[in-house]
Amino acid sequence: MNHTKSTFRGLSDGLRRKVPSQMLYGNALFLTATEALRRRESHRSEPKAIVVAIGYPLTDSLFSPRRSTDLTPPCDNYTAPEGPDGKPKIEGHGGADKFLTFITEAVQPFIRTVFPNISFRKTALFGHSYGGLFVLHCLFTRPSSFDLYLAASPSIWWNDCFILSELARFCDGVPLEHPPVLRLSFGSREQLPVREPGESLEKFERREVAARRRGMEDNCSELYDRLSKAGLLRGLELKEYLDEDHGSVIAPALNGAIVFMEM
Hints:
Protein name: Alpha/Beta hydrolase protein
Keywords: Hydrolase
Region (Disordered): 66-90
Largest sheet: 8 strands, mixed
CATH topology: Rossmann fold
CATH superfamily: Alpha/Beta hydrolase fold, catalytic domain
Structural class: alpha/beta
Shape: globular
CATH architecture: 3-Layer(aba) Sandwich
Helix content: 25-40%
Number of strands: 8
GO molecular function, one term: hydrolase activity, acting on ester bonds
Family: Belongs to the esterase D family.
Number of helices: 9
């Protein structure tokens, strides 16, 4: 990789069989994830999971602009997404394959080096938004990389729903020897937003149009239906979180992913 990546890990005391979860957007989500895990496991004799967050060198910003390059699939044709002002938002794209190689060839061996006495019974990948898109790209193109795929509010809309072409190729493929599991989740207010206190009608209407165009619920439902019919996964779940928008849904989606990993 041309740029430095930072890896954060949530340590646990037990040294038996664990589920290591590699989580994207580490700068923004790591503390939320570890606190959720700590609260859930406070009454247990032995933790069941390890959280490994993949982020970037720390700055004042929660999100690095490099994420748009690292988390989006390579493609021949590209349409830039609209920014809040309705104009094309210029950002990098198409580096997901290189980033996935970094995870499988650098991060995963690093985890086993740091925890040499732990037997990993399964591995998981969690991502939200562009991170959720990356999770789906990984599932559809290199499905044996992980056992559990946890896609929260995935940006299926990106580049005219390009990921659906990868879905089609995946569904047309041969059955996998060790099929993975996918959990999809989203917030009910992502496609149907609610006007916020003090928000102007003009701003809300722009946000409402953008939300409907991106179609989070419709896209997740279509993805679920097509994967369910294909029957290539060992497990498949679609979870809607009521009264949550694209930002607020992160906390319940993370907690739900932790519960899902332990099943």
